[in-house]
């Protein structure tokens, strides 16, 4: 089974995942824009098992629908590397850019499209949701 490794800028925090992503998406909510410093977050979901090496700082955020997400950051360089949803630790969402792979699969889903900057163009065939579909 193919593995992929994503890491923070300084290399102190890393996550190794296995197999193809369960899904790749972008989120345009204001929390993700602030969290990433970009106009959207690009995330890839993977099933467990996954292996984390290094030390992470954690931040718990409650989403609009009440779900809680535990974000992990590198305490050295500040990179937001991955997060899990409380109660669903069998999967992990990893920042796509942290893989450093320009050939990584394109997103197929866009959430909080109501907050998407008008100049951001989605890949053809991307399913867009005005808010979170869950």
Describe the structure.
Residues 1-113 form the CENP-V/GFA domain. This is GFA family protein. Keywords: Lyase, Metal-binding, Zinc. 5% of the residues lie in helices and 40% in strands. The chain has 1 helix and 11 strands; from the N terminus they run E-E-E-H-E-E-E-E-E-E-E-E. The strands form 2 sheets. It has an 8-stranded mixed β-sheet. It is mostly beta strands and 134 residues long. It has a single domain (3-116), classed as Metal Binding Protein, Guanine Nucleotide Exchange Factor, Chain A, CATH 2.170.150.
Question: What is this structure's SSE topology?
Answer:
Elements lengths: L2 E5 L6 E5 L4 E5 L2 H7 L4 E7 L3 E3 L3 E6 L5 E6 L6 E6 L5 E5 L13 E3 L15 E2 L6
Parallel strand pairs: 3-10, 10-11
Antiparallel strand pairs: 1-2, 2-5, 3-4, 4-9, 6-7, 7-8, 8-9
InterPro entries: CENP-V/GFA, Mss4-like_sf
Family: Belongs to the Gfa family.
Keywords: Lyase, Metal-binding, Zinc
Briefly characterize the structure.
This protein is mostly beta strands and 134 residues long. 5% of the residues lie in helices and 40% in strands.
Key terms:
single chain; 134 residues; mainly beta; Metal Binding Protein, Guanine Nucleotide Exchange Factor, Chain A; 8-stranded mixed beta sheet; 1 helix; 5% helix; globular; GFA family protein; zinc; lyase
